[in-house]
């Protein structure tokens, strides 16, 4: 059961190993010398025979702190019983990077070595980056160093560029040993992830409960809001009605005020007329009294005359 499970992970694990062989693009130098290195400084790959599939892998050759590199040559050496560089027909030619840009070269693989007799760069390069990418194929489990020999770099003026070289160590591990180690590592990582998952699950449950509580409060507040919104709509309707009544009453008030002013004006005129009538009545009464007095007086005189 374990073997069957392990075999299902082979493709993924191989991909992970290849990713670990791809180094970062930057390397700092402590002086003015260029630095030529394989990265990382230790490589571990499984020995995968034809029962498991082809086990070729890439290692990048990194160059840093270089100025106006125009031409170079070098050899790399390693244990030929453990590693080989595939021949030309088998796509073993080292690949230049976009940074280095490629060029014209003369190179060939050998037993336990790969030699560049010369490499004329198409356009001079400066700075840091991947110079070449080498393809290797394991032949048998074991460990070997990959070292540089006969390194010579020149700038555009033909001057020698000082170069510090740093090799690497490749460990070819038996597939079963490697896969068991990887399984153990994955098991450890799985246990750590499981612990993190359990912790996160507790946090999730807590947050979920808080969410349920907040959602309940939100629902209650939403209901309160709906009720208040309905009451506000009713009050707004009442306000509109009352405001219409107020405006109508205000118009009635203005009409009554005008009517009152007109009535007061009419009463004033009527009062004036009554005052004139009252004066005339007083005059009439006065004249009537005078007339009656004269009449009585005449009557009395007439009687006195006849007597």
Structure in words:
The protein has 307 residues and is α+β, with helices and mostly antiparallel strands. The protein has a domain at 2-176: Immunoglobulin-like (Sandwich), CATH 2.60.40.680. Helices cover 49% and strands 31% of the residues. It contains 3 helices and 10 strands, in the order ααββββββββββα. The chain has helices at 2-8, 10-20, 175-306, and strands at residues 34-39, 42-47, 57-77, 83-84, 95-96, 103-110, 113-138, 142-155, 163-166, 168-174. Strands 1, 2, 3, 4, 5, 6, 7, 8, 9 and 10 form a 10-stranded mixed β-sheet that branches. A hairpin with a 2-residue loop joins strand 6 (103-110) and strand 7 (113-138). The termini are far apart. Mean pLDDT is 83; it is low at 1-30.
Terminal-residue CA separation: 177 Å
CATH architecture of the domain at 2-176: Sandwich
Structural class: alpha+beta
Main β-sheet: number of strands, strand sense, barrel status? 10 strands, mixed
Note the run of SSEs as H and E.
Answer: HHEEEEEEEEEEH
Strand element count: 10
Mean pLDDT: 83
Low-confidence stretches: 1-30
Number of DSSP helical runs: 3
CATH fold annotation of the domain at 2-176: Immunoglobulin-like
Please write the CATH class name of the domain at 2-176. Mainly Beta
Identify the overall geometry. rod-shaped
Using only C-alpha atoms, the radius of gyration works out to 58 Å
Percent range of helical residues? 40-55%
Which percent band covers the strand fraction? 25-35%
């Amino acid at each position: 059961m374990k073997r069957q499970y392990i075999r299902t992970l082979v493709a993924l694990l191989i991909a992970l190993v290849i990713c670990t062989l791809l180094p970062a693009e930057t390397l700092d130098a402590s002086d003015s010398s260029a630095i030529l290195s394989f990265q990382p400084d230790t490589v571990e790959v499984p020995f995968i025979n034809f029962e498991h599939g082809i086990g070729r892998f890439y290692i990048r050759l990194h160059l840093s702190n270089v100025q106006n590199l125009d031409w170079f040559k070098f050899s790399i050496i390693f244990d030929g019983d453990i590693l080989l560089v595939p021949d030309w027909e088998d796509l073993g030619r080292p690949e230049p990077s976009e940074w280095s840009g490629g060029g014209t070269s003369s190179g060939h693989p050998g037993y336990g070595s790969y030699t560049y007799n010369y490499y004329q760069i198409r356009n001079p390069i400066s700075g840091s980056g991947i110079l070449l990418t080498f393809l290797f194929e394991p032949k048998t489990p074991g460990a070997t160093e990959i070292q540089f020999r006969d390194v010579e770099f020149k700038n555009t003026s033909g001057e020698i560029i000082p170069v510090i070289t740093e090799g690497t160590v490749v460990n070819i591990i038996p597939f079963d040993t490697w896969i068991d180690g990887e399984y153990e590592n994955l098991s450890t990582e799985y246990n750590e992830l499981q612990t993190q998952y359990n912790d996160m699950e507790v946090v999730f449950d807590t947050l979920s409960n808080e969410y349920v509580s907040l959602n309940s409060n939100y629902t209650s507040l939403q209901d309160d809001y709906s009720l208040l919104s309905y009451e506000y709509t009713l009050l707004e309707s009442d306000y509109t009605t009352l405001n219409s009544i107020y405006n109508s009453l205000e118009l009635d008030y203005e009409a009554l005020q005008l009517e009152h002013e007109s009535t007061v004006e009419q009463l004033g005129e009527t009062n004036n007329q009554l005052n004139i009538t009252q004066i005339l009545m007083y005059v009439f009464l006065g004249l009537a009294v005078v007339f009656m007095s004269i009449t009585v007086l005449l009557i009395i005189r007439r009687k006195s005359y006849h007597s």
